[in-house]
Design goal:
The chain has about 525 residues and is an alpha/beta fold. Helix content is about 50%, strand content about 15%. β9 and β10 form a beta hairpin. α16 runs antiparallel to α17, α16 packs across α18 and α17 packs across α18. Keywords: Hydrolase, Transcription, Transcription regulation.
Length: about 525
């Protein structure tokens, strides 16, 4: 069936079991696929449940629409669909991207969710995210087709030529390459753990033992500390577990959804206390400690400043790598000692670097934890965690830059670039010149060149020449880039203002003169 949702066409199927009193399961598919990826599990599920499955916007027979492709948009689509069908509550099961949508839906519409099943969730250790993102984007090159052979060979344990693989390949090849690339970026930018920790619905997490795209180890270690979550690993399955063993998967889903209670009443106080003690013990081995209520506020524009609960911490930041380590933890709130040593002192023997790190961490912890009962810096045996609510202008700049790069709507993108322009008015240079920080800063500058040149050309087409040139002038205070100057000169000529032409000609000639001297 097709259903109009907010002026966009959503294609769905509502299958009914023989028992009218059955509850409903909603299935949400993954990237580079459509709802037919569930063809192999629906026959089993229909024996016990009504089943709703649908094509996400931009996939299968559903329209792309004009809304940005975001988890919020996908969650709102599902909400509208369930309302139209007349479902007030359902069990939600999502695969990969679908799992992220399911989490967001449970966060936004908690009263409509009986329970969740999350399959092959994209979730990675923070220190590996950049490398994994680079790899994911590299296997989806510019072109007219999805690299299905490579993806399906890794994503399933089924042999080549299996009917399920052939069908999945056909669905993937029918997908819009640009939509799939956009979804890949969205998926890699998502951090499901915070939202997963803050929902209350009973949740089962299922991963494939052979999954190389979304390995389960980090995710399953973290969710051990979430009392509403259970997690299992399916043998002989990869990330497309709905294809690899649909019968086993369906049996797991049916057994979970049919439970009348999600916890067994325990009358023995000792057993209850031991269960909680063991959970706490396992959690403390390797998981981030619970967040604290303190607000850590860092400003990098102008003079470097740090506040904890609005109280300034003015001294000690230029000693023992305190400023550098703090900014590193702001960007990587959880990091291993090896990762820190490799970033800051790659040429030192690891034992020496770790010894130095202990001294530097003691100094930083003293700065951050003074006069506070709950420590902001949690120094574990293997990993270091920065807790509390972190507010930082650098994080804001990273976030809005990523949003602008991914935003497909012109008006919204222009607004985001205006926010970047406002931020750059207070940032003339990076706060650190260490290699790891300059790598981030240089990447940001490259993104800004792309965004500001695009914005200026869009504004010029609307006749807003002075606004376009003002933005470029702001960008050039932080980015000395010839392409931006050439864009400005081009726009100055289009404006037919001799004053602007003379101004930007001098700027262009001066830049070239300085470059030749260098």
């Amino acid at each position: 069936m097709d259903q109009k949702i907010e002026n966009d066409l959503i294609h769905y199927e509502h299958s009914f079991s023989s028992d009218d009193t059955s509850e409903t399961i909603v299935l949400i598919h993954c990237n580079a696929a459509d709802m037919t990826v569930f063809d192999w599990v629906v026959p089993y599920l229909r024996q016990s449940f009504h089943v709703v499955r649908y094509d996400l916007r931009g996939f299968g027979q559903s329209a792309r629409g004009t809304h940005p492709l975001s988890l919020d948009t996908f969650a709102k689509d599902l909400h509208s669909l369930l309302k139209e069908i007349g479902l007030e509550k359902a069990h939600i099961a999502g695969l990969q991207l679908g799992a992220l949508i399911a989490i967001r839906f449970a966060h936004m519409y908690k009263d409509m969710v009986n329970s969740l099943v999350l399959m092959s969730i994209p979730c990675f250790p923070p220190e590996l995210l950049e490398k994994i993102t680079t790899h994911r984007m590299a296997i989806r090159p510019e072109g007219t087709e999805i690299p299905t052979d490579y993806i399906l060979r890794q994503a399933s344990t089924l042999p080549a030529g299996h009917p399920a693989i052939e069908q999945a390949a056909k669905s993937a090849l029918a997908c819009d390459v640009n939509v799939c690339k956009e979804i890949t970026q969205l998926t890699m930018m998502s951090n499901p753990l915070d939202e997963l920790a803050n929902i209350s619905q009973p949740t089962l997490i299922i991963s494939g033992a052979e999954d190389v795209f979304f390995p389960y180890h980090y995710l399953h270690a973290v969710v051990r500390g979430f009392s509403h979550c259970q997690s299992i690993v399916m043998p002989n399955a990869s990330s497309l577990i709905v294809l690899d063993d649909p019968k086993m998967l369906s049996s797991i889903l049916i057994s979970y959804f049919q439970l009348e209670s999600y916890s067994t009443e325990q009358t023995d106080p000792f057993l209850t206390s031991m269960k909680e003690a063991i959970r706490s013990s396992v959690t403390s081995l390797q998981l981030p400690a619970a967040r604290v209520n303190a607000i850590l506020h860092i400003e990098t524009a102008g003079e470097f400043t740090v506040f904890i609960n609005d109280q300034p911490i003015p001294d000690g930041w230029n000693k023992r790598y305190a400023k550098s380590l703090l900014l590193f933890f702001v960007i990587h709130p959880s990091a291993s000692r090896e990762q820190i040593c490799d970033t800051f002192w790659p040429d030192l023997p690891l034992a020496t670097a770790k010894k130095n790190l202990r001294v530097y961490l003691l100094h930083l912890r003293t700065l951050l934890n003074q006069e506070h009962e709950e420590p902001l810096l949690d120094v574990g045996r293997e990993r270091i965690y920065l807790k509390g609510t972190i507010r930082c202008d650098l994080l804001d700049l990273l976030r809005v830059t990523k949003e602008a790069l991914l935003e497909p709507k012109t008006d919204t993108r222009l607004t985001l670039i205006e926010k970047i322009e406002t931020s750059l008015q207070g940032i003339q240079s990076p706060v650190l010149y260490e290699e790891w920080y300059m790598t981030i800063w240089n990447d940001l500058q490259n993104h800004w060149v792309s965004l500001f040149s695009w914005s200026a050309k869009e504004l010029a087409q609307l006749g807003h020449y002075e606004l376009a040139l003002r933005q470029l002038q702001t960008a050039l205070t932080s980015i000395k880039d010839e392409y931006l100057i050439e864009t400005a000169l081009e726009i100055a000529y289009k404006s037919q203002s001799q004053l602007l032409i003379d101004q930007w000609t001098r700027t262009h000639d001066g830049f070239l003169s300085n470059e030749s001297l260098n």
